[in-house]
Design goal:
The chain is of the alpha/beta class and 140 residues long. It has one domain: 3-Layer(aba) Sandwich (Rossmann fold). The chain contains 4 helices and 5 strands, in the order H-E-H-E-H-E-H-E-E. Helix 2 links the parallel strand 1 and strand 2.
Length: 140
């Protein structure tokens, strides 16, 4: 079965963003992407961790910080929310500064934080992202 082509879809649709969503940004993302996120949701990024986020966009600086940060961010999303871990594509450096990191290696890091991966997408020519969510059985 051939792969589906999602290249024509806007990145905000790939991220599952909707009008009114609360989005939190952790790390340094590309300004043009963040502007598109703001336009799609109709609001700026959440400034306080007290407001549960529907979506968190996370640019890690190193692989060693991913699991501890995901543990913290898991408490900051709505029960059916998601955390996108953004990494550089092969031979690229992401806007967040982390060098290429094989996304297959993200899966056990998310599992260690009590999360499961359920989607990947290309954000740009230099970045891709993997979404982590709380398992349905663990949602309140």
């Amino acid at each position: 079965m051939p792969d589906k082509d999602y290249s024509h879809r806007d990145v905000t649709d790939k991220l599952g963003l909707e009008q009114g969503f609360v989005v939190r940004v952790v790390g340094k993302g590309a300004p043009d992407l963040l502007a598109r996120v703001r336009q799609k949701t109709g609001r700026g990024p959440a400034r306080s961790a007290k407001t549960p986020a529907d979506v968190i966009l996370y640019w890690p600086k190193s692989s060693s910080e991913i699991t501890p940060t995901l543990i913290e961010l898991r408490r900051a999303i709505t029960p059916n929310g998601g955390i996108w871990v953004v990494t550089a594509k092969r031979n690229c450096t992401s806007a967040g500064g982390m060098a290429y990191f094989n996304q297959d290696a993200l899966i056990p890091l998310g599992a260690a934080a009590g999360l499961v991966d359920n989607k990947i997408c290309s954000l740009s020519d230099s970045e891709s992202a993997m979404r982590f969510v709380i398992r349905k059985k663990d949602r309140m």
